[in-house]
Amino acid sequence: MKEFFNVTTIEAVLALRQTFGPVVSQSVSLEQALNRVLATDVAADRDIPGFDRATVDGYAVCAASTYGASEGAPAYLTVVGAVEMGHTPGGTVGPGQATRIATGGMLPAGADSVVMVEHTGVIDKGTIEVYRSVAPGQHVVTRDEDAAKGQLLLSAGIRLRPQELGMLAACGMKDVIVHQRPRVGIISSGDEVVPVTVDPAPGQVRDVNSHTLAALVRQGGGVPTCYGIVPDRFEDLLDMCRKALAHNDMVLVSGGSSVGTRDLTVEVLGALEQSRILVHGVSISPGKPTILAQCGAKPFWGLPGHVTSTMVVFMVLVRPFLSRLTGWINDAPVRVPARLTRNVASAQGRVDFVRVALRHQAGETWAEPILGASGLIRTMVAADGLIAIALNDEGLEQGAAVEVMLF
Amino acid sequence: MKEFFNVTTIEAVLALRQTFGPVVSQSVSLEQALNRVLATDVAADRDIPGFDRATVDGYAVCAASTYGASEGAPAYLTVVGAVEMGHTPGGTVGPGQATRIATGGMLPAGADSVVMVEHTGVIDKGTIEVYRSVAPGQHVVTRDEDAAKGQLLLSAGIRLRPQELGMLAACGMKDVIVHQRPRVGIISSGDEVVPVTVDPAPGQVRDVNSHTLAALVRQGGGVPTCYGIVPDRFEDLLDMCRKALAHNDMVLVSGGSSVGTRDLTVEVLGALEQSRILVHGVSISPGKPTILAQCGAKPFWGLPGHVTSTMVVFMVLVRPFLSRLTGWINDAPVRVPARLTRNVASAQGRVDFVRVALRHQAGETWAEPILGASGLIRTMVAADGLIAIALNDEGLEQGAAVEVMLF
């Protein structure tokens, strides 16, 4: 039995990420910043909220005025005013006094806590009774409790979720410096591949990979550009690869599942300017015939032709490189623990990625392997994620604990 | 102690989803269809792949020609041709014959299986030896193995992932019918709220909620429009609500944490045309003072002013309604099991949502509660998700098994 190439482990491929750096940054408005990666640290421009703030509706008081108060022996306080929302309250609150305040209002001078309105009763226009004592600071957010001026709030390299955008808004940042979205060129190769709009003749298949890869790139924070289908001819493929490289930060060529196409891709990669093949074959299944080259400062991938193989390789290998280009530091995929519904065999010497569907039954989460050849897109449609069977495992038994990497 | 309103349970609020229907559909190109919700069933336009296809590089053969073959006693076959990719092979393969074929090639007439090239040796130009037998159908994907013509492949109501887009491409669909993205109007109310660009005076806070809610809407598949900040005056709020209702499929007003604002929101909702208050208070914490009204065919939410309360209510209640508007059927959030790092107290009679950060330690996933008042945006920034403490639980103990609803 012949071995066509020397395979690299997944870990060794992933370690090559540091060969490449994040793309440059740009300023975008908060409205455009969701899921973008922060390119600078952000510190608070001021104390937030900036004043002592009531967290309930009630009365601002000196806590000491309420000590010992109960339903049976209420404390009686004189109401000396009301706090107007959005303004500094005029008066002060002394011992035995109270000022009416709404949630979010600014505490008047002298007050150190708020009695909930539910724990008070109105005696007359100027007097309330209080049924419960409060401690100093109770029902109050202090002036720098959310952030103190100058405090580091967000670090470069995080991906912005709704709450981080809220934090940026709280800091008065209408615009934010993020990494650009990496541009990713996508080329389909293969004499048998025809565009989606064409009715395939016998022997031909529609171009599934370009659309699938474009969506994966978009999902991973990149901007895909599809360069269509290139026949398996050296000059044609070389020209298209040059073009895609010139206009993108990373390039994906898919279609090299046969030895011939794979050889062609390697030949083309070798002929590109400033290129160096880093990986030629990975100990992964499906997806063994994966190629990674460095072209100048850009990663260039030769991906398998089968769509499921290409999707697995994208998720396990390409996406972490895309994250690296976006500047995102903590890009670990979500993993859900589950138990296998049946035995799964695996060959040693490679990491097997098995498509699974999640089923919830009797309080447990089960991973049901989806069977079928790796050329079948329906197996990916039926699946919720992937499980990995380690390099030296011969398989997993029914009931085994697995971690499902969600799509 | 007074109770300000009768609360509705979370389940009862969610059951009201069926009061509202999905928005209308539109045709979009595959490039724009990621994460959109399919509005029609999709069936295969033809058999896929449409011909018997090799899944490995090797030789197309009649399986019977290889029976009994081994390293010690190979089968000798006559090579009668080679399959050209993308074309119907000309000849036929008879017993004792073989045709060279690459991965993805179309099987010639007569052949029923493929021998891997790794299991063959070349004797001379016209003869190979085969070291392993194959079974009929081995290393072949049959003409309708991915899909048979007319077969239902994708159902209306699913959200399109990269693999579903691949499936649509395989079916020749350059465009796809999806539900429109629901338009969601967002209004911030409160006399203390100022735009992000303003330096707040004492007693004022920047408008964090509009930005956070807009991002949550976007994340949930909607198109947000922010209508800015409206002071706590009946006429102003009514006018803005009418405007937002006219141009959107759902409206969110945030800012009513004090009894006064809450009353104002209820008053305004009552004054809107064809409006009906469905929910006034929910047994949830934070987020109890949530209001849901039906205005014509549209849901209208009054959300609490504290940003974390508003985020929790959005995730638990508003997002499922948004999913309903998008037409998405299976919108369950991802839940990761974990164990609590410390005791958490909870009041009975409400479901408490606690912000937690995930920590991975010694092969286990731990949920670390993030403490802090619900007005503090930093508590959401520090968190990875939420855990729920059930209506009748008084709390959870350190080490308790929880499910984390990821942000």
Polypeptide structure, described:
2 copies of one chain form a homodimer. With 407 residues, chain A is α/β, with parallel strands linked by helices. Chain A folds into 4 domains: 10-24 and 180-326, MoaB/Mog-like domain (Molybdenum Cofactor Biosythetic Enzyme, Chain A, 3-Layer(aba) Sandwich); 25-47 and 158-179, Alpha-Beta Complex (Molybdopterin biosynthesis moea protein, domain 2), CATH 3.90.105; 53-141, Beta Complex (Molybdopterin biosynthesis moeA protein, domain 3), CATH 2.170.190.11; 335-406, Beta Barrel (Beta-clip), CATH 2.40.340.10. The first copy, chain A, contains 7 helices and 28 strands. Chain A has helices spanning 10-15, 162-170, 208-219, 234-247, 259-271, 307-326, 377-381, and strands spanning 25-29, 42-43, 53-54, 58-61, 75-82, 97-101, 113-116, 120-124, 127-130, 140-141, 152-154, 175-179, 183-189, 193-194, 205-206, 223-230, 250-254, 275-280, 284-285, 291-295, 298-303, 335-340, 344-345, 351-361, 364-369, 385-389, 395-396, 401-406. In chain A, strands 7-4-6-5-9-8 form a 6-stranded mixed beta sheet, with no helix packed on it. Chain A has a 6-stranded mixed beta sheet with strand order 16-13-17-21-20-18, with helices on both faces. In chain A, helix 3 packs parallel to helix 6. Chain A is elongated, with a radius of gyration of 31 Å. The mean pLDDT of chain A is 94. The interface between A and B is large, with 101 and 100 residues.
